[in-house]
Amino acid sequence: MVTGTDAGVDRVVRAITDDGAFRVVTVESSRTVRQAIAAQQPNGTLAGLFADLITGSILVRETMSPDQRVQIILQAEDQKSRLIADSNPDTNPWTRGLIQLARNAHDFALGTEARLQVARRLYNGSLHQGVVAVPASGGISEALMSYMQSSEQVVSMIAVGTYGEGDALRAGGYLVQLLPDVGEGPLMVMTERLKDFATMRPLLEKQMAEPHLLLSELLYGMPYTEVGESVHGFGCNCSEERILFGLSTLPRHDVQELTQQGDMLEIACDYCRRQYKIAPAKLRGLLADN
């Protein structure tokens, strides 16, 4: 369900080294992030955090649950403000985001009490969740690495980032996962190599973050096989039916008050800002159903 005015799509590339030592996922998320930012309108540091969370959710889903939904919530130090990234599988996978700031809050402070929560569906239908602290120094990338190690028990090196703004904004990231067959030699080589890829911003600035190019740079000199490629974009599953369902959960007297006003009810989706107009007759139908 890829939507929006940008006709292009972002890409994810997956590979495994031929010696079975590493699994690598690279992602370009520029278009997805641009449209998520356009819908939520964050600025400055908040925009960067939001963008990194969007990219991180795509990486986690593509690595751990490519056919299942992944939702990541970043909760600020005030315990009231939060950022949400919601990455979904589909014929063309899509991701959306939401910014919820506490009343009168003008920024999004991480501090020592910030937490990152990851929730994903397992193939048996159960829900897997993990919560980790967000290091002030490493931000989203380090928090995601902490989550992968503590909740998934998989050592992973992760970097997400953005560069630029507006229509020129570029975003992307990578994940290098240690597999059980990794030997001491390949591990030492990869550890040294990743020092040159510690942050994504320089790579994005130099336009070296295209997924295939980034993959070849990360695994330079290491034989590997690409095992998959997919597209993704910004999207939302909102609909008039979902809006009506949400209204049906309101107290009956609230729905009655809306119908008595006799005006067309205008509601915007919190995620994508799409506008919906609900006719009074449909509101009265909710009262009849109840």
CATH class of the largest domain: Alpha Beta
Q: Averaging pLDDT over every residue, what do you get?
A: 89
Task: Report how far apart the termini are.
Answer: 32 Å
Low-pLDDT stretches: 1-7
For this structure, what is the CATH homologous superfamily of the largest domain? Hsp33 domain
**Into how many domains do the coordinates divide?**
2
Query: Helix/strand/pairing class, anyone?
Result: alpha+beta
Helix share of residues?
25-40%
How many DSSP H or I helices?
9
Rg (C-alpha, Å): 21 Å
Strand content: 25-35%
Describe the structure.
It is elongated and about 75 Å long. With 290 residues, it is of the alpha+beta class. 38% of the residues are buried. It has two domains: 10-234, 3-Layer(bab) Sandwich (Hsp33 domain), CATH 3.55.30; 240-289, HSP33 redox switch-like (CBS domain Like, Alpha-Beta Complex). The chain has helices at 30-40, 44-64, 139-151, 184-194, 201-205, 211-218, 240-248, 252-261, 280-289, and strands spanning 10-17, 22-28, 70-75, 82-88, 94-100, 115-121, 127-133, 156-163, 170-178, 224-234, 265-268, 275-278. It has nine helices and twelve strands. It has a ten-stranded mixed sheet with strand order 7-6-3-4-5-10-1-2-9-8, with helices on both faces. It has a two-stranded antiparallel sheet with strand order 11-12. Strand 1 and strand 2 (22-28) form a beta hairpin.
